[in-house]
Write a structure and sequence with these properties.
The protein is mainly alpha-helical. The protein is 78% helix and 0% strand. It is built from three helices and no strands. The chain is rod-shaped. The relative contact order is 0.03.
Length: 145
């Protein structure tokens, strides 16, 4: 055997050994793919959780803003109501005084069971009762639909 042949065989053997080592060296590849998939999955999960937390925070902030807006509107309404009551106080006081005066005047009038037969009471009944139906003691009218 010549040195050239021996060198060629050695080179061929080294090539086969290198190829075998390369193929046996790829045995880690499935594990690397699995680990990479887990890393990407965990990263995606953490990203999605972060987005979900941001959404929750955004909803909470929006709810707080809406609640503050409603509270401000209620305060404005209460202030307006108080100012309106203050503006209308003279009118309501006058109406209350007139009502009190009317009640006092009615309390001073002596009661008479025959007052229902006066012309004023009959005229009042004609206005209040439909069709001017007179009231008769002990007699009732049927209810109208």
């Amino acid at each position: 055997m010549s040195i050239v042949t021996k060198a060629a065989e050695t080179a061929a053997e080294d090539a086969v050994a290198t190829a075998g080592r390369l193929l046996s060296g790829l045995s880690w590849l499935p594990w690397a793919i699995a680990a990479g998939s887990l890393a990407v999955g965990a990263g995606g999960t953490l990203w999605y959780r972060g987005e979900w937390k941001d959404c929750q925070a955004s909803v909470a902030i929006d709810a707080a803003k809406a609640e503050e807006k409603v509270r401000a509107q209620k305060d404005a309404d209460a202030k307006f109501t108080r100012s309106l009551a203050e503006q209308l106080k003279p009118i309501t006081d006058a109406i209350q005084e007139q009502t009190n005066a009317t009640q006092i005047a009615l309390a001073k009038v002596k009661s008479d069971p025959n007052c229902a037969h006066t012309p004023a009471a009959n005229a009042f009944d004609g206005v209040v009762r439909p069709g001017g139906v007179e009231a008769r003691p002990g007699q009732s009218r049927p209810a109208r639909p």
